[in-house]
Amino acid sequence: KTTAWRVLLTALNRIENSDGQAHIIDPKAISKDDLYGYMDQNTREWTDGLFTHILRKIIDNVRGELSKRQWIIFDGDVDPEWVENLNSVLDDNKLLTLPNGERLGLPANVRVMFEVQDLRHATLATVSRTGMVWFNQETVTSAMLLQCYLNRIRQESVFNVINQDDPNSKDNIIQSSEENKTSILERQNHLADLLEPYCEKENGLILDTLEFSEQKQVHIMDFLQSRCLQTLFSMLNHVIRTIVKRQLFSNDRATPLTEKQIEQYLIKSLIISMIWSFSGDGKLKYRQQLGDFIMNTIKNNNIAPPTDRSLPIIDFEVNSEGEWDSWLLKVPSIELEGSKVDASDLVIPTIDTIRHETLLYTWLNEHKPLLLCGPPGSGKTMTLFSALRSLPACEVVGLNFSSATTPELIMKTFAHYCEYKKTATSGVVLAPSQLGKWIIVFCDEINLPDEDKYGTQRVISFLRQCIEHGGFYRTSDHTWIHLERIQFVGACNPPTDPGRKPLSHRFLRHCPLIYVDYPGEISLKQIYGTFNRAMLKKFNNMKP
């Protein structure tokens, strides 16, 4: 939906050689007073809200706003509480009447647009005043998304994905010369050719696996094909970046891979990425089931399965040479002192923690928002913080959400840990005070905030706006604040637990989702084996 109106606006601007503007407002991320304005009951003084401020700025025409195409887009849930105020704007009157008696006319160059997921709470009065364009799921299919991804990696460097805000990063230095850029794109085109057979619309491995997971498996939250594919793309970006670095910037310790090793590394990594992207939000047995489905589907291919057939494919990773390595071999055996057994921050490495930490590191390094879901006490927070310790130059800010949490809590957190800067290109920017540092906002119990009577969680709408549009409107002066080097991570109990609310699809589609279950048998043996050895050290005559 967003892409459709953006393309239309860009096309109209080119045809008319004008500079049209779009003003995007999420009406549920701010209060009604902040949207339309309010009157002080004591002084009878009127204060404009965001919508009235934008409209008045266009009418005042200080910078030639009336000569440009102006689109005001309400990108959020429609409900009678806020949208009924627009009825006189949307009909032939084209007038906004304010509580102070003032009337603002809608100029001829202004259009009002609503971008919504559904019309459950829209009234007939609103619907009858607007035109309707229906985007069903077949408008943009999964096959189209796959083809779009292949086209993107053929034309754009994957090093751009994570370095837009940090021009001095190592990856930006890598592609700083034109020669390097050309070499990177040549390599990416070769990798896209290797991936293409698996992305085909008919009998393509990726789409077949996606369909199997959707129809035959149980997921902890609503299954969204777009979310699963975006998760897969972020993991493949990491894989492609690793291969390109190895091929173009190898050293004595890491020589370039052969063509066969490249194919093995890429396709085996694709298999692991599909398992985590499509069934990472389910229990371990579903990941094992999906792994079996994939290996049975490609058994006639030249991708050899692991030599140890007794273990599921999910228990293996792909090493730097393109070979299978067991996760069990990666788990370090640690020895504790008896006095440290009751330490509250103690982490015993297990196959689950090592596997999850590696996975989280991939997404955190891509600066993707992500969600961990699982029963209470399953180790979500511990696993996340353990992964964050391996990330350089980042600071974690923990927020505990409750039923009463509002966007104001997040904005206060921003003000405490970040600073506002005025820039020539991006306007007002909110970024961590320390140059090059990232702030990771950890939202614990993210599905606890109460919904309003129309089913919207305001704080989730605000988070979606920050993630999707890269900023928010500061209500004090109606300035758009662009976020830089700020990332969001959430953890929650399953939505079926008491007091939990299902998260909006428009928010979920941006977030890779991992289900963290209670430790399995192998992990429990690793945990209690470590504890028991530590306790028995006190008794010299007892040998484990």
Automatic annotation (TrEMBL):
The alphabetized list of GO BP terms reads: microtubule-based movement
- Where do the AAA+ ATPase domain residues begin and end? 366-517
Which Pfam families does the entry link to? AAA_5, AAA_7, Dynein_AAA_lid
Q: By its UniProt entry, which Gene3D superfamilies does this protein fall under?
A: 1.10.472.130, 1.20.920.30, P-loop containing nucleotide triphosphate hydrolases
Which GO cellular component terms are attached?
A: axonemal dynein complex
One MF annotation (Gene Ontology) recorded for this entry: ATP hydrolysis activity
**Where does the sequence pass through the membrane?**
none
Question: Which InterPro entries does the UniProt entry name for this protein?
Answer: AAA+_ATPase, ATPase_dyneun-rel_AAA, DHC, Dynein_AAA5_ext, P-loop_NTPase
PANTHER family found in the cross-reference section: CYTOPLASMIC DYNEIN 1 HEAVY CHAIN 1 (PTHR46532:SF13), MALE FERTILITY FACTOR KL5 (PTHR46532)
What is the protein's given name? AAA+ ATPase domain-containing protein
Q: What organism is this sequence from?
A: Rotaria magnacalcarata
